[in-house]
Give the backbone structure.
Amino acid sequence: MTEPGWENVEQKIEGIDGWLSDIENHFLYSTAKNCANKGVIVEIGSWKGRSTICLALGSKEGKQVKVYAIDPHTGSPDHQRPGQKIWTFNEFTNNIRAAGAASLVIPVISTAEDAVKNWNLPIEFIFIDANYHDHELTKNLIINWSKHLIRGGTIALNSTNPSMLGILSGKPLHGLPGPKKAVADLIYGSRNFKNIRLAGCITYAQKCDNNTLSERMAGRFTQLKSGFLYSIHGAYLLLTKIPSPIKKFLKKSLASRTNLKS
């Protein structure tokens, strides 16, 4: 993560609210940069534009593929409170402009469920960061949006497994039940995805017509790795209940022995 382009992106997103780690942000930047302009880039869940900037500036260094940023800008259920109105679009727009990414970003003020109803563009890379706890909602997002993903295109879903870097740096999301189960059912359990990998809390894969036995086995190995990370996460939660000096020692030991890049 030391290339000059990425260092510039890190400076651009510094101070913008968001939950993705450096590993996850760099994954978005790198994947967008390598898109071949065979379809557009879609982001579901833009919040205030931190991840959108990573996608757009990566694309800017590559084939300059347009980034469709889909978000109702009214916050997720976790942010909404009775009697309080949330409207993040103005801040989103200001952040995109300040980062020099406005020429490639097309905001879509809508829920993902409504936006897909009239969608007719091929997609080369889709990043789903809806943060839904509900399995059915996440499942429907995968089913409905992956129909528009080109063969060889990449689908990436956040909050699907724990990230050791996220855990050790105090990030709040380490894999939500809804996205986790949806990925198990529709990505790991599908014949239409291959090259399944992890990048922090993100699970990503390439669309294919019919994966091979070796590709399915490789995918199951990645699933086992995700399960192992869940086990470590559970152990870490137990460690948080022990005295602080011991916890600091174990935390340091865990950081040195674990591959933080997932």
